[in-house]
Amino acid sequence: MSRETMEYDVVIVGGGPSGLSTAIKLKQLNSNLNVCLLEKASEIGAHIISGNVFETKALDELLPNWKELNAPVKTKVSKEKFLFLGKKQSLSWPTWLLPSVQKNHNNYIISLANLCRWLAEQAEGLGVEIFPGFPASEILYNEDGSVKGVATQDMGIDKAGNKKDSFESGIDLHAKVTVFAEGCRGHLGKQLIKKFNLDKGKSPQQYGIGFKEIWEVDEKKHQEGLVMHTVGWPMSNDTYGGSFMYHAENKQIFLGYVIGLDYKNPHLSPFDEFQRFKTHPQIKKIIEGGKRISYGARALIEGGIQSLPKMYMPGALLVGCDAGTLNMPKIKGSHTAMKSGMIAAETIFEHIKDKKTLSSYEEKFKNSWVYKELYIARNVKPSFNWGLILGILFTGLDQILFRGKLPFTLKHKHADHQTLLPANKTKKIEYPKPDNIITFDKTSSVYLTGTNHVENQPVHLQLKDTNLPINYTLEKFDEPAQRYCPVGVYEVQIEKNLPKFIINSQNCIHCKTCDIKEPSQNITWVTPEGGGGPKYGNM
Amino acid sequence: MKILVAVKRVIDYNVQVRVKEDGTGVVTENVKMSTNPPDDNAVEEAVKIKEAGKANEIVAVTVGEDKAQETVRKALAVGVDRGIHVKVDGIIEPLAVSKILQKIVDKEKPDLVFMGKQAIDDDCNQTGQMLAAHLNWPQATFASKVEVKDKLLEVTREVDEGLETIEVNIPAIVTCDLRLNEPRYASLPNIMKAKKKPLEQINAADLGIDTKQRIEQIKVEEPPKRKAGIKVSSVAELVQKLKNEAKVI
């Protein structure tokens, strides 16, 4: 069946910081360009979740008058703490001994979701056409193999793949250049990296899973502008992870935990580690008596430049964490994502105007401050392969003494799905039961995300081999999907004495962890019907 | 025939609503807003009637702050021809809304007015009925099926005992149930076209309607938390507990 086609100069897939910055910069360079931006969430910001301590460097360049334009960037960091946690004890690390990348005194505590909503308003004001609720589900190619654009998803398909009465065909969007800005592990970006071999000669990409809760706490315990990070308990020495606690405006605390997805023990449950972490006296004393008002989780990129794929291909560019521009030791990716989008816009502007090839993106990127930042940061994450203590010692040397200029680059050895050890060779972990005051279960947590998917639609978490979870993964790894999924999408239930693998796809918060961590890469995340997924507020 | 459809912007039905700490209302900051779900059914039904050749124009109207226009744009993207936004800031009660709608009906002279049976935020279920009273028009509430027959409507409505089918003369007010139809999706090209459709803005004050609140809201609080259940060992114990502790039998 032929579908309707729309022509644009530039089509951008994804309304996060990188995609929106691309759109804004393009219109600033040439207001006559036709720019369209697709977003799978029901509104811009509804799928955005991030810490977030924000460095304004990219925003200063993109919209220098952001303060006058009333950007939701208000809470300046006023105080910093860094703690090493033992089970009950804690050791405060003097901030003057922190590497400069972890100092935040000029930064702001923000809600990235709200910043994106504001960026979208700026973009629309410049004439960008933004379409929330329309996931790009397919890449379209020209005959010569170059990217032609994307197709939006058909709406109104039932579970079995038949058209419902409400069926509405997706449409083809053609563009001179298509920009993929889907964020970490974008499902189209993943296809492009494979098709164009963009990761050739690079280390396998590294990921983490990040959790965030927003708490409203007692005024007396709230110190607006305070930024605190911890490492150590409840992570063991060989698992990469740490927490953040940001005291934001309105008595809110942004509390979160990030765990490297290269963890080895299949019995580990990132969600329960986060819940358990909150029971530490240093954390509990602040949130006790408060109220949890939001919850969410999302995979994030940790690979750095060793894993950064080539970001251009015929007809298309990758920006932000669809490629992987997050700066891990800084624990920040918003400013680098925005800058990568701005550089992409400059490249596209010249490409359309002077027929310059898109490969100039790489050169521009390498000459930018983003690349310099990522280069200096490159050895931190791989050094934690030696464990937390050696990692910290090395990072001290590398970042404080040598400022990232050591004459070598450590590689990432394994992809995250290859790191699990067999279940019978690893220790089972008993997690404490939630008390429903400080700690919670997954069911009550997913409820806070406002997640919903239209019920009668195809399952968007696809298994390559439907028997594998029970026949192989359950026996060998005790089916870790039950634990790595932050909202309990995957369950193994016993029916008639036989285990059965269940996918509650309507709970999916689009974090992509399963697509990354499944040991046989058996789960593929594809876009569900538009508007589905979480409805995050100020995450 | 001309149809007027009223739509309201409310907190999205997937959002877990939170009560403000001071008890003056619910938190709407940083919360996803959408069209009231049964209003989507009202729009869909009007569009279906037009598609069947039984109506020639549909006008959507909303009453509220500037952002309420989003709900009209959404209606325009699925087949409504024109929009009206009556601007009012702050809380507005069903009585004032129905008076505003009466003015719009006087101006637009529609043959039918469709709207949702109630809004999911205040659950009042009053505006349609009040409008019918102001206009002295027949009303068909909780419609789960609507058939246009020449000068009258045959409407099936859900009542406690089952289904009731009534006939009302046109002009009439119809308030719609969620079971009436399945609202369609707006396609991307239609959303673009909707941006170019006319949307008239009117100030409530210019209509001569006093929108001040007549109901004083004293306090908003969360429903009490449900206590954990207990297991009983026998039927006798259950009966005893229902009688003496729960005091329900």
What is the compact description of this entry?
With 539 residues, chain A is an alpha+beta fold. Chain A has helices at residues 17-29, 57-62, 112-125, 187-195, 270-277, 281-287, 334-354, 360-366, 369-377, 380-383, 388-401, 442-448, 468-477, 481-484, 513-517; strands at 5-13, 35-39, 53-54, 75-76, 79-85, 90-92, 108-109, 129-132, 136-141, 147-152, 155-157, 163-168, 172-180, 207-216, 226-232, 241-247, 252-260, 291-301, 312-313, 316-318, 461-463, 490-495, 498-503, 523-525. Chain B has one domain (2-224): Rossmann fold (3-Layer(aba) Sandwich).
Q: What does this protein structure show overall?
A:
Chain A is 26% helix and 24% strand. By secondary structure, chain A is α+β, with helices and mostly antiparallel strands. Chain A has a domain at 5-67 and 113-198 and 309-377: 3-Layer(bba) Sandwich (FAD/NAD(P)-binding domain). Chain B has 249 residues and is of the alpha/beta class. Chain B has one domain (2-224): Rossmann fold. Chain B contains 6 helices and 11 strands. Chain B has helices at residues 37-51, 69-77, 94-108, 127-135, 188-194, 235-244; strands at residues 2-7, 9-11, 33-35, 57-64, 82-87, 112-116, 139-149, 152-159, 162-169, 172-176, 199-203. Chain B is globular, with a radius of gyration of 21 Å. The N and C termini of chain B lie far apart (56 Å). Chain A binds chain B through residues 4, 6, 42-43, 46, 111, 113-114, 129, 131, 134, 152, 155-156, 164-166, 168-169, 171, 216, 293, 447-448, 450-452, 530, 535, 537-538, and chain B through 12, 14-16, 18, 21, 30-32, 34, 182-189, 191-192.
Q: Which key features would you list for this structure?
A:
heterodimer, A: 539 residues, alpha+beta, FAD/NAD(P)-binding domain, eight-stranded mixed sheet, seven-stranded mixed sheet, 24% strand, globular, B: 249 residues, alpha/beta, Rossmann fold, nine-stranded mixed sheet, two-stranded antiparallel sheet, 6 helices, 11 strands
